[in-house]
Design goal:
- 23% of the residues lie in helices and 31% in strands.
- Strands 1-2-3-7-6-5-4 form a seven-stranded mixed β-sheet, with helices on both faces. A five-stranded antiparallel β-sheet has the order 11-10-9-8-12, with no helix packed on it.
- α3 packs antiparallel against α4 and α3 crosses α5.
- The radius of gyration is 18 Å and the shape is globular.
Amino acid sequence: MASDMNNRKSLADFRHDALQETSSTNSVCLERARAGDPGNLWVTAERQTGGRGRRGRPWVSEPGNLYASLLLIDPAPMDRIGSLPLAVAVAVHQAVRSVLPLAAEPVEIKWPNDILIGRKKTCGILIEGEAMPDGRYALVIGIGINIAVMPDNPMYPVTCLRQQGSMVSPDELFAHLYATMSEALGAWNRGKGIREITARWREVACGIGEKITVNLPDRSILGHFTGIDDNGLLMLETEDGRIMPIAAGDVFFR
């Protein structure tokens, strides 16, 4: 049986394919998986013509920003996959923070994996999975980071790295992300390192202890954000004093 150290990722384990333009880097990764790619493959594009965010929302993908997707094959047993978004958020947070000037506004993670600078969204992360006919499971982590461009009419406040005083290029930012993702996935260790990841996540979390609204597909719930449990579920103290675990939803600060 392989030791945990053999499961740990190093930079040499990953490959990178840089494209000028594609419909969506997530779609490219899924196509590669269906064609038998062994995974640990990064795909980046200077521009996407069909980028997508959560719940099918379009993701503005003009040149100047970072559009990257990482293909993983069988990254963990299915009962441990749920904590992966936290590890991804920790990696992206670290990459973004490393390219900002010291005087920049605080960089925080909004549950589960939005990166905020001064409470304004600067990054979207979309994780998609697909079971392959040969029994493998393909998981794609799509990451879009606003460097120079941002949406005109967003649902909530947005910013970009230029506004925050960073002159980083997409290639430079990707080099940071390539390293921080390798390290965070190594620490996550196929889900065995979830305690270390949740501890890191809590250190840079946005809004713990504050009043929030969580929009679920069928309703909105108000309450206090008391933190996350060791599996990464949001713990919401509702107005009648109950603690409600939430696995997925859109969080809005009051």
